[in-house]
Amino acid sequence: EAGVAQSPRYKIIEKRQSVAFWCNPISGHATLYWYQQILGQGPKLLIQFQNNGVVDDSQLPKDRFSAERLKGVDSTLKIQPAKLEDSAVYLCASSLTGGGLGDYTFGSGTRLTVV
Amino acid sequence: SQQGEEDPQALSIQEGENATMNCSYKTSINNLQWYRQNSGRGLVHLILIRSNEREKHSGRLRVTLDTSKKSSSLLITASRAADTASYFCAAILRDNYGQNFVFGPGTRLSVLP
């Protein structure tokens, strides 16, 4: 079974520039999550999708972050404009049941450096 | 605020020794899960313990859960250098949105050969 695919693997941008990350979840997984993990900290949920609908985006900084999941499969996360404090690893995860049964699968993440 | 809070933040042991990590959380949970993260990689699910369970084993892993103290522990027995990683607990809450994961800051384990 293929895992959760994310790209790019690394990205370096200057502050105030824009950046987009892509995630392809495991086939058939209805729930998709984007997490932000700052160095030395645990992952923080940014947004959760159920198919192509948003379930929870309460911690998404909506003035600069946006995410979409068209057709309920792939998802993109965008930051516009980026700030220095956005430097982090952005993790995508998917699950079949909502993750509560331990079927959460993470991608390897995109490491963003804002300079 | 984070639900899962692991301690210690960092742990360094010799190969063959046991490693114990603790996690505390703040509100009622549906279940609690432990994850492992190698440097620069995504998180890998290790073990899940339900709120009505007290102890669970998986290979060299032993997890306990004390809902009265709102705490859990992860024990890795006979550690190996390959166990070097960060370990996170995730409190699985049930709220209006369904399952809601909240990860702690993690314990960085170093197993020295």
The count of strands of chain B amounts to 11
Overall outline of chain A: globular
- In CATH, what is the homologous superfamily of chain B? Immunoglobulins
Number of helices of chain B: 0
- Low-pLDDT runs of 5+ residues of chain B are none
Largest sheet of chain B: 6 strands, mixed
Report the principal-axis shape of chain B: globular
CATH class call of chain B: Mainly Beta
- Residue fraction in strands of chain B: over 45%
Supply Rg of chain B.
Answer: 14 Å
Note the gap between the termini of chain A.
Answer: 37 Å
Biggest interface, CB < 8 A: A-B, 28 and 26 residues
Oligomer: heterodimer
- Written as H for each helix and E for each strand, in order along the chain, the element string of chain B is EEEEEEEEEEE
Average of the residue pLDDT scores of chain A: 91
Radius of gyration of chain A: 13 Å
Counting H and I runs of at least 4 residues, what is the number of helices of chain A? 0
What do we call the CATH topology of chain B? Immunoglobulin-like
Reported for the largest beta sheet of chain A, the result is: 7 strands, mixed
Explain this structure to me?
The termini of chain A are far apart. Chain A has no helices and 11 strands. Chain A is globular. In chain A, a hairpin with a 6-residue loop joins strand 4 (31-37) and strand 5 (44-50). Chain A is mainly beta. Chain A has strands at residues 5-7, 10-13, 19-24, 31-37, 44-50, 53-56, 65-68, 75-79, 88-95, 105-106, 110-114. In chain A, the strands form 2 sheets. In chain A, strands 2, 4, 5, 6, 9, 10 and 11 form a 7-stranded mixed beta sheet that branches. A 4-stranded antiparallel beta sheet of chain A has the order 1-3-8-7, with no helix packed on it. Chain A has a domain at 1-18 and 49-82. The model of chain A has no long low-confidence stretch (mean pLDDT 91). Chain B is mostly beta strands and 113 residues long. Chain B has a single domain, classed as Immunoglobulins (Immunoglobulin-like), CATH 2.60.40.10. Helix content of chain B is 0%, strand content 60%. Chain B contains no helices and 11 strands. In chain B, strands 2, 4, 5, 9, 10 and 11 form a 6-stranded mixed beta sheet that branches. In chain B, strands 1-3-8-7-6 form a 5-stranded antiparallel beta sheet, with no helix packed on it. The A-B interface holds A 4, 33, 35, 40-45, 48, 50, 55-56, 91, 93, 98-109, 111 and B 2, 4, 30-31, 33, 40-45, 47-48, 88, 92, 94, 97-106.
